[in-house]
Design goal:
Layout lengths: L7 H16 L4 H12 L2 H19 L2 H9 L5 H14 L2 H8 L1 H4 L3 E2 L6 E4 L5 E4 L4 E6 L4 E7 L1 E6 L9 E5 L2 E5 L5 E7 L4 E7 L1 E6 L8 E4 L2 E5 L8 E2 L11 E8 H9 L5 E4 L7 E7 L3 H12 L2 E5 L3 E5 L5
Parallel strand pairs: 5-7, 16-19
Antiparallel strand pairs: 1-4, 2-3, 3-6, 4-5, 6-9, 7-8, 8-11, 9-10, 10-13, 11-12, 13-14, 15-17, 18-19
Helix pairs in contact: 1-3, 1-5
Length: 323
Amino acid sequence: MTTSAPSMDLLGEAADWLVCFQSGEMTERERARFERWRASSPLHAAAWQRAEAVLGDFAALPPDTARQTLSRLKAPRRRQAMQVLGLMLAAAPASWLAWRELPSWTADLRTATGEQRTIELADGTRLVLNTASAVDVRYAAEARLLHLLAGEILVTNGRDQRHLPPLIVQSEHGAMRARDTPKLRFAVRLLARATRLSVFDGALAVTPARAATTVTATARAGQELEFTSGAVGEAHAVQPSAALWEKGMLVAKDMRLAALLDELARYRRGIVRCDPAIANLRVSGAFPVHDFERSLGLLRQTLGLQTSSVGPYWITVQRPPET
């Protein structure tokens, strides 16, 4: 016997619960109500499974995109949930995700959430793709072009660049052209509204895509900067540990807890939510990016925090209840 699919009304209720969790205002009483709702029938459970599938699909999007999409789902909850999440739950998540992520899925090189990949290119350049990243590679006699479509890359080349075609890394915000230097080592990360360039060896000239006038800035070894399609920000010192993600580690130095969780969340499917009441706690330490449970254990030990979850995709980090 085949179980009927959840109705739009049930999918709307599941959407309401998603928004309730995202709001940061969910009480223990509401959590108990949710558990009763989910357990009330197989169709209720199926509606929440559909919701969890959508959360998993959100995780394959660039992290900032996923957060911005969910953060727009505010009061009045019922109307917006039905209009936005309800329709998403009723649709085929894979089709929706494929439409949103077509450039990444058709890229020459890409990684899934939580995956890292190392490639040696034809000229000896070592290219490391971080989690959920995508790159197009176009090598020709006149230039070596890396087009970053999503995520983050680390580029290393120990050969003398003066005898090679120019190396250019392009993002939606502009182009980064390597200067003639004996060796290169730099990272590029595509953010929600900007591109971040971190230079460890060598130097790169940065040109925004749509600046009102020709703007070119140079980031040199030991410097980091961010730029949009119209402007280049001020360069500042890059932390030597900024590229340790290649080794599977995230080093935090007086980092906001919310920012740390955002970084760790890039390496797992699902949503990691930080209680706003503890978002500004400062954290220092080294955290394994591929072992989320171990990282949470370190936070529980050092800060006395606790975690709760709804299914495999949604985790909330919060203070323990007062006794």
